[in-house]
Design a protein that fits this description.
By secondary structure, the chain is an alpha/beta fold. Keywords: ATP-binding, GTP-binding, Multifunctional enzyme, Nucleotide-binding, Nucleotidyltransferase, Transferase.
């Protein structure tokens, strides 16, 4: 992966380093709107005319004290019902930081509105009532926070006044919630006791909570660091529009306008345009204030390339060695937002970054049970506010990353083509997230009556898996087949598992989306493990471009204490393309194959393989000798 220098906090403009997007959520009557009102009021962030209007409305409603919830509950329906329905946004700033606060609905009926408010948030503030502790809607909201990868969660234990500000009750609520929250793998979780109605521990400390030594809520919000949460490594620039005209000597007359989604962009950087795979260099980066030396998320800029190449709205600029996945198939978590149930086969529009394409829901994988975070496999439908996992195919390729890697390029929405309504928010899944649920629950592993040790003693065969990974055309299968032949000739059992051969049978139902590639690797690793357990030296020849998938293959063998040797068959993409033994590079360049590794899909080189074979430099026989030597050293032949 090509490195980039991460800018310091001081070098970032206020909208990057000092702006905090805050989500506030909780169950009905948990005090969300009151808390936000108290925060603004005690921090002296309300204008005098706002306070006067608030006082008048409170008196008209028969309130003895100011009803601070009225500051954000702006809809008439909300005021009449006393609940938050829509997402209310507040913009304010303190000397330390600027804030955009999304006050989201608490009622289960409006969960979809909460998802909308959470989609761009840096920090989630969830309220829990001290007298009652966690309720189902808290678990729902916490699951959404996890699903949307909000890295910071503050749990405000509100209404401490109703339990006499008792330390024991606060600690009991924390003890109740901690096991649940830990399952969600949220990087930072903080519990704070407060009394939103009276103001204790919201902006100022209170003697009532004198036993609490942590931060007040406002102090925590002003000091939580969010700059490090930005992805400055994976270079992503979705093209919003093409501006014609301008340009100087040695650069395109067209500028590509958009918002930096990830990475640090600089003039001189080599870029690849996805999905076409064409390459160029950045000649300049421009803003309304003129040319700049670098751009980072979420800056809006115009980029000029050194070459006149075909680039359109919806295309994406990446670094050649670190690309988004170009795919027509993806697996994703979704929150269904329509009263009309989602059924398999539904045809919708999928909007991803700057591109909107027709799509079909091919499969409902499972529905998430919020009580247990378990999964109901193969649901008949997803109903309003359901969270689930689906498989989607698009009519044209899109450029995506896993949502956990990049919240911009890993997110999408589904739109009803007839009404134009947004009916789902989706998050592209990463490889290891595809294990939900893994395996059936009603089957038991059947042990053999012959142990591995007995098999070794009687047959004299020690097994292992040799995993050859590398770009298409690097020479993996050539080397593996020659090693297989030499081992078998010497009397040692060996078998070649070639990726293309497996896709004719075992993996014939898998495509080439990121999730399906991961499943291809998993199945191959499981089969290889069985062969290795039987005493074979298994030579696996699979591109397996993602490091996480290969790590999972190794883990499958480690779990059963079987040797796993990763061999990186290394050759420059230019050499592989010149070889092109199966004609795949040519077809990919012609646009006939989407998501082809080395053209419009990236490859993550192994960081610490047991052996690297530079097939651009080595003769085939030399590469075979080196691999035979490795096998002999790491998995000695018991026969000598």
């Amino acid at each position: 992966m090509e490195s980039a220098t991460i800018p310091s906090i001081d070098s970032l403009p206020v909208e990057d380093g000092d702006l905090l997007r805050l989500l506030v959520a909780g169950s009905v009557d948990s005090g969300k709107s009151t808390l936000i009102g108290r925060l603004l009021y005690d921090a002296k962030l309300l204008l005098s005319d706002q306070i006067e209007a608030l006082e008048k409305t409170s008196i008209d409603r028969g309130e003895v004290e100011l009803d601070l919830s009225l500051i954000t509950d702006g809809l008439r329906a909300e005021r009449e019902q006393g609940i938050t329905i829509d997402v209310a946004y507040r913009y304010f700033s303190t000397p330390q930081r600027a804030f955009i606060v999304a006050d989201t609905p608490g009622h289960v009926t409006y969960t979809r509105n909460m998802v909308t408010g959470a989609s761009n948030s840096d920090v989630a503030l969830l309220l829990v009532e001290a007298p009652t502790g966690a309720v189902e809607q808290f678990r729902r909201h916490a699951a959404i926070v996890s699903m949307l990868r909000i890295p910071h969660l503050i749990v405000a234990v509100n209404k401490m006044d109703l339990v006499g500000y008792a330390q024991e009750r606060f600690e009991a609520v924390v003890a109740e919630l901690t096991p649940w929250v830990e399952q969600l793998e949220i990087p930072q979780v903080t519990f704070i006791p407060i009394d939103a109605l009276g103001g204790a521990n919201v902006v100022d400390r209170s003697e009532s909570l004198g036993w609490y030594s942590g931060s007040t809520l406002l102090h925590e919000l002003e000091n939580v660091s969010v700059v490090a949460d930005r992805n400055f490594s994976d270079y992503r620039f979705p093209v919003q529009s093409v501006i014609r005209g301008g340009g100087g000597e040695g650069e395109s007359a067209r500028a590509l306008a958009g918002q930096v989604a990830a990475g640090i962009m600089r003039p001189g950087d080599e870029v690849v345009v996805l999905p076409s795979g064409e390459r160029s260099h950045i000649s300049s980066i421009e803003t309304l204030d003129g040319r700049i030396d670098e751009a980072w998320p979420p800056m809006a800029v115009a980029v000029r390339l050194a070459d006149e190449i075909d680039v359109s709205r919806g295309d994406m600029l990446c670094q050649p060695g670190n690309r988004a996945s170009v795919t027509e198939n993806l697996t994703a978590r979704v929150c269904w937002m329509s009263e009309r149930p989602l059924l398999a086969g539904a045809r919708l529009l999928l909007k991803h970054t700057t591109k909107t394409v027709p799509a079909r829901v091919d499969q409902l994988v499972h529905r998430i049970e919020l009580d247990t975070l378990g999964a109901e496999p193969d649901p008949a439908a997803l109903e309003l506010n359901d969270l689930g996992v689906i498989v989607v195919s698009t009519t044209t390729p899109i450029c995506v990353d896993p949502y956990r890697v990049n919240r911009r390029t890993g997110a999408f929405v589904l739109i009803d083509e007839a009404t134009g309504d947004t009916v789902a928010a989706g998050m592209v899944l990463h490889n290891d997230e595809m294990r939900e649920p893994r395996g059936a629950t009603n089957v038991i592993w059947q042990d053999s009556r012959t142990t591995r040790e007995q098999r070794l003693e009687r047959l004299g065969h020690a097994g292992a898996t040799v995993w050859l990974t590398g770009l298409p055309g690097a020479g993996k299968t050539t080397v593996a087949a020659a090693v297989e032949e030499r081992l078998v000739t010497s009397g040692r059992p060996a078998y070649l598992l070639d990726g293309d051969n497996l896709r004719h049978g075992l993996n014939s139902n898998l495509g080439f989306s990121e999730a399906e590639r991961a499943e291809n690797v998993r199945r191959t690793a499981e089969v290889a493990r069985l062969f290795a357990d039987a005493g074979f030296v298994v030579l696996v020849s699979v591109v397996s471009p993602e490091a996480d998938a290969r790590a999972s293959a190794r883990a499958i063998h480690d779990e059963h204490e079987l040797p796993f040797l990763e061999v990186f068959v290394d050759a420059p993409v230019e050499v592989c393309e010149q070889r092109d033994p199966k004609g795949h590079y040519a077809r990919a360049r012609a646009g006939e194959i989407a998501g082809f590794t080395g053209v419009d899909a990236g490859y993550e080189s192994p960081s610490d393989p047991e052996l690297t074979l530079d097939t651009d430099r080595l003769e085939p026989g030399e590469a075979v000798d080196l691999l035979i030597d490795l096998i002999s050293a790491r998995v000695p032949d018991p026969r000598g």
